[in-house]
Specification:
The chain is an alpha+beta fold and about 375 residues long. The protein is about 30% helix and about 25% strand. Strand 1 and strand 2 form a beta hairpin. Helix 2 crosses helix 10, helix 4 packs parallel to helix 10 and helix 8 crosses helix 10. The longest helix has 17 residues. The relative contact order is 0.19.
Length: about 375
């Protein structure tokens, strides 16, 4: 039992791709991040050039060199649950395969986002004198409800540890800078009627039929593409779930549809709510979740230098990521990490060794040139 409590030894000087495999082998489904957080903390505390702080299962390591600029490199330690499909390769432990002359690493978290975390750790060990002060942030509970977020907890408990001029979230972007992110809003529209036996349906009032107008508004809606600071963000308004009914011989008295609105960073959360209230005028909206969008902030000096170092044309981030939390704190942020985001959470989640190494090289160049 005692041995199970000892954090495994992570070799931060190893090839970042091999370090990715070691991190995958530490299963860390949301809620079970303790062992990987222990290992990360232990490895970072061996580095004398870093000041290390632990908050729950979140770990922050910072240089204190007095540079004129500070940047954050952030990544989450947790993953979604392991694949339930027998024989799936995107599981734990990790496995290597050869594909088209490239080494490819399979395992849960390979793209989302232990490849990015490995890059953070390798940089934290190698860069003892970076050209900017760096805060390396590793946090828990990203893949679950936002209220449980370890990054959100750090914002509440120790916001000074997240202060910076610029932040990079190492979510998978296939090695391309993705600026800002769309906001997201989840809400429900419930229609109500009167229950009756379906053999005498004229006595009742069918709540499911009343959803026809809601669905028609969704089908007729044309989502917009909005340019923000030179990047084109595509919005979306979609039904994501529908329910109602009691039994096969009962006219239902209630029905509901779940709707998700993805909105561009030209809108505040309040403006996003106002927009969907206009679209669904006459209906009551039950808002389940609302997260702000993030502007890209690519005009900031640190961001411009980063984009130049990567050497690729920036793209917008259509999904929501924790760059929005940094944006709310006044810290412009981008997504940049190894792996294809389309492989995240899949049964064959994988990343190439070269993608992890290239991400490391790009960030190292930016922080040392």
């Amino acid at each position: 039992m005692l041995a199970a409590m000892i954090a495994p030894d992570l070799d931060l000087a190893a090839d970042p791709a091999e370090l990715t495999a070691a991190l995958i082998d530490l299963e860390s489904v949301s809620g079970g991040e303790g062992p990987i957080a222990d290992a990360v903390e232990a490895a970072l505390r061996r580095l004398p050039h870093l000041a290390v702080h632990r908050d729950g299962d979140a770990v922050v390591a910072r240089t204190e060199l007095g540079r004129g600029e500070r940047v954050v490199l952030a990544g989450h330690l947790d993953t979604v649950p392991l694949p339930a499909v027998p024989g799936a390769r995107g599981t734990v432990p990790s496995s290597w395969e050869e594909a088209d002359g490239h080494r490819v690493l399979y395992g849960r978290g390979a793209t989302d986002m232990k490849g990015g975390v490995a890059v953070q750790l390798a940089l934290a060990a190698a860069l003892t004198e970076p050209n900017r002060d760096v805060s390396y942030v590793f946090y828990d509970h990203e893949e679950v409800d936002a209220a449980a977020s370890g990054l959100g907890r750090l914002q509440r408990n120790a916001p000074e540890l997240l202060e910076a001029d610029f932040a990079v979230l190492l979510e998978p972007t296939d090695g391309t800078v993705e600026g800002g992110c769309n906001g997201t809003m989840r809400f429900r529209i419930t229609t109500r009627g009167r229950a009756a036996h379906s053999g005498r349906s004229w006595i009742g009032d069918n709540a499911i039929h009343k959803q026809a107008d809601v669905l028609a508004r969704l089908a007729a809606y044309t989502p917009r593409t909005i340019t923000v600071e030179g990047l084109d963000y595509r919005e979306g308004l979609n039904a994501t779930g529908i329910g109602g009914g009691v039994a096969g011989n009962v006219v239902p008295d209630t029905a509901h549809v779940e709707i998700n609105y993805r909105f561009a960073p030209d809108k505040s959360p309040e403006e996003a709510v106002a927009h969907v209230r206009e679209v669904f005028a006459g209906y009551e909206l039950e808002i389940a979740d609302l997260s702000a969008a993030a502007r890209p902030g690519l005009d900031r000096p640190a961001a411009a230098a980063f984009v130049a170092a990567v050497g690729q044309e920036p793209k917008p981030k259509y999904g929501w990521t924790d760059v929005a939390r940094f944006s709310q704190m006044g810290v412009p942020a981008v997504n940049f990490g190894p792996g294809d985001a389309l492989l995240a959470h899949t049964d064959d989640e994988h990343v190439s060794a070269e993608a992890v190494r290239e991400c490391y090289r790009a960030l190292a160049a930016w922080l040392t040139d």
